[in-house]
């Protein structure tokens, strides 16, 4: 009992430390600038106001266009990454071809290369192709899978019992049908985890959209919020409202897929 009390107390303290910035952001976002300036930071808003959100939704500093562009970018990248990662992982896990393992480990070694190291070469390539400040320039570098996703899926595919695959082949199924009707239905938890990871990564991506775009035509949400922060440093209530709006979709997504994430952690043994 004592050990359980200590464990839950530590978890409670950790939860408070993690949730405190989000709660403070929400609390500040429903205050007026005068309340924020005159009251202590932890004081509850009195009265609660939605003027900051109204300004960001229908006012002169609307975040709707960057939000729409961000959703489009995330949808295209998620569809491309999951499709290419599933196909590549199946090939590395279940197909025999010369140099398979060597090619896989060489590809996996690219995880050690910092993203900043390839930022300039990537920009030069897209600039030569005329894709700077375009939607394609934002999504193309991230559409064709990632080493982490391929590694995770490969390890999961290799754990699928060989007997299931043999039974499918006896029934006349080729590799496409085996992948579609046997492998993928068993991989829903790990695919949900990769979906969350990919969405969060590219929803929060800031550096590459900042480098490859200019102006407001293809401005994503993170760049728009950063610009709002630099433009209105004194109006922290508006900035906190923008931060809260940018975070809410991720919280909703996690709430929907949390059961799959927990199950995938249990299955794969990830920490």
Automatic annotation (TrEMBL):
Name under which the protein is recorded: Sugar ABC transporter permease
Keyword Mitochondrion: no
Annotated GO biological process: transmembrane transport
Topology of the protein relative to the lipid bilayer: Multi-pass membrane protein
Family indicated by similarity: Belongs to the binding-protein-dependent transport system permease family.
GO CC list: plasma membrane
SUPFAM superfamilies linked: MetI-like (SSF161098)
Domain of life: Bacteria
Transmembrane segments: 5-24, 67-92, 104-125, 131-157, 178-200, 235-257
Record flagged with keyword Cell membrane: yes
Pfam families per UniProt: BPD_transp_1
Protein localization: Cell membrane
Domain (ABC transmembrane type-1): residue spans on this chain: 67-257
């Amino acid at each position: 009992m004592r050990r359980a009390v200590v464990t839950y107390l530590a978890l409670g303290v950790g939860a408070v430390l993690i949730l405190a910035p989000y709660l403070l952001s929400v609390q500040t976002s429903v205050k007026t600038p005068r309340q924020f300036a005159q009251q202590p930071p932890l004081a509850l808003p009195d009265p609660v106001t939605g003027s900051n959100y109204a300004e960001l939704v229908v006012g002169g500093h609307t975040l709707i266009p960057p939000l729409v562009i961000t959703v489009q970018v995330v949808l295209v990248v998620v569809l491309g990454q999951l499709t290419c990662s599933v196909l590549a992982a199946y090939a590395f896990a279940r197909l025999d071809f010369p140099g398979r393992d060597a090619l896989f480990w060489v590809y996996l070694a690219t995880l050690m290369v910092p993203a900043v190291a390839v930022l300039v070469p990537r920009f030069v390539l897209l600039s030569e192709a005329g894709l700077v400040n375009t939607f394609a320039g934002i999504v193309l570098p991230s559409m064709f899978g990632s080493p982490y996703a391929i590694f995770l899926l490969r390890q999961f595919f290799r754990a699928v019992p060989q007997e299931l695959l043999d039974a499918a082949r006896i029934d006349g199924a080729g590799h496409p049908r085996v992948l579609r009707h046997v492998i993928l239905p068993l991989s829903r938890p790990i695919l949900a985890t990769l979906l969350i990871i990919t969405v969060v990564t590219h929803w929060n991506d800031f550096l590459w959209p900042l480098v490859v775009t200019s102006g407001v035509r293809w401005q994503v949400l993170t760049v728009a919020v950063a610009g709002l922060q630099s433009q209105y440093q004194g109006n922290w209530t508006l900035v906190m409202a923008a931060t809260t709006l940018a975070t809410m979709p991720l919280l909703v997504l996690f709430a929907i897929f949390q059961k799959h994430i927990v199950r995938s952690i249990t299955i794969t043994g990830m920490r």
